[in-house]
Each structure stands twice: as structure tokens, then as C-alpha cells.
């Protein structure tokens, strides 16, 4: 298997008809970035920064974060390194943040909501990101966005941080893209609105599938519903891709569905620009992409989208798998 994949190493990711795609990696710390590079990722599509905050007694300071972000950025420059701001809450509890017990943490005070209320914590991260962006390849990505005001509030915060850094005479690069995860139904359904003010999208199918289907993957009684092949989820993915392109912004996917072999033709047909996967799956994803021309992918996707159940869709996609 490994031998077979070697021929895809060091090559650009292309569909069968020569359309360029990006195959990026998901990482949790700067050391992972080195592995991702050696696994032949073309960039980083998701740096989950919450790991920098976990398993310790207090939040990492600006200098410590600066070092981690700069290291990842340097390894991949000039290719993009998409760094997601702190995604705390839900299943990711960080004791020193005193988030309080909630009846429904997945619908609670978390991620970008928490960061916008805890300005000094958030500013430390944003300042570190702006300072680490000396090569201009860092992109900031917000988790759990549900509406436009969150993007605007973060832009204001970025501008404020730039002013502060300038006044302090610190070196930084204010020219940074601000993108969002599309992982809530609210963001998915309003993707056309959000695309007007986000610089890029990345579809988080792990959360999006759960929220769309109102089904917890970890709950064995309902996990059968948790499938990206559900018409509800596939329609959303298609709409998100179309909305991004109508607004002229790129769209990636960093949820596990990006590496799902049987979904590849649908994702190509929808026009997904970037596939961000565990670094061990980079070559396999590149190979899957190389098997489909756009026209063949559209043919498969149209048939798949006309089916009415996840079971039929999965069975059909398996039957045409390459
Ligand atoms: C997702 O929700 O698809 C995602 C990539 O974010 P995480 O898995 O970190 O929640
Ligand atoms: Mg998520």
C-alpha cells in the first residue's frame, strides 16, 4: 500500500483532467508540522490550537504561542498555514478557564463565543498570530461561527491588536486572511451571507454532521444517523461550496469527510479547493483526487444527490469507488 502511494509523493494534487487541488494536513502542535511536511502535505489546513492550552495550569503566553505558530509557518512558507483560534468548550474542557458546568456544553459558551467575551485571552492569541505572520503565510480561522457579527467583532479585535503592536514598536504583519469554519447549521445555511465578509471557508464536517443530524457520534443509540452521506449534510456541503465560489473565496474541508474515499467525486464536483486531512492520509487523498475528472465526478455527484437516503447514497458511492 505504502509502495503504491509513493508515486504520488512530491507531486502536486491534480484531478484526472488536470485541475489543481490542495491537500493540506490537520495538526495539533508545531512538532506535527514537521511530520506533515515529511508526509508531503502541501500546507496546513487546520492547526488545532486548543492543544497548546491543554494539560497545564494556565494559558500559554504570547511569546510561547508566537514560537509555536512561527515554527509551523516557517516549515511551510510560502504555503498557507491555517491556524484556528482557541476552540474551547464542548468536549474540550480546560479546567483553568473556569467555564462552569453547563447542561448542554455543545450548545453553550464555547469557542469564538468564549474568546469574544474573554478579550485579554483572545488578544494574546491574535497578537501572537500577527507577530508570527512575518512571512505572510498564516491564515486565521474561527471555530463555531454562527453569524456575521462574530466575524466583524473579530476583525475589530484584529485591528485593535495591530494598533497596539504598532504603538509598542513590535514587528508584525497585519496582512492576514480571516476565514471561518463552517460547522454549524446556522453558518451553513447562511454561507452566502458569511462569504461576503470571510476570506475563506473550511467545512468542519465532524461538528456539522452532528449538529445537522442532531446526533452525537459518541452515543451508540443514535450514531447510525451520524453520516456525511445523509442528504441533509451533502446538500449543505454543496451549498457551502457554491456560496464560497459565488463570492469568489476559496473553500476547503478539514473534517474527516475530506479523507473519505467514496466522497471524493462529490467533493470534486462541488468544487472543493482544499482537502485537509490527517497527515498520514495525504498521499491517499492525493491519489483519490487523481482518479476523477471533473465531468465524471459531476456525473456521480448528480446521481448521488438524487438519492433520498444515506444508505442508498453510501451504497451507490461505494459501487463507483475507484
Ligand atoms: C470539525 O468539526 O469538523 C473540525 C474539524 O473541528 P474539530 O474536529 O476540531 O471539532
Ligand atoms: Mg469542530
TrEMBL record:
It comes from the Bacteria. It is an enzyme of class 2 (transferase). The active site is at residue 254. The keyword Kinase applies. GO terms for biological process: phosphoenolpyruvate-dependent sugar phosphotransferase system. Its cofactor is Mg(2+). This is Phosphoenolpyruvate-protein phosphotransferase. The keyword DNA-binding does not apply. Its EC number is 2.7.3.9. Phosphoenolpyruvate binds at residues 48, 84, 206-207, 217. It catalyses: L-histidyl-[protein] + phosphoenolpyruvate = N(pros)-phospho-L-histidyl-[protein] + pyruvate. Residues 5-290 form the PEP-utilising enzyme C-terminal domain. Its main location: cytoplasm.
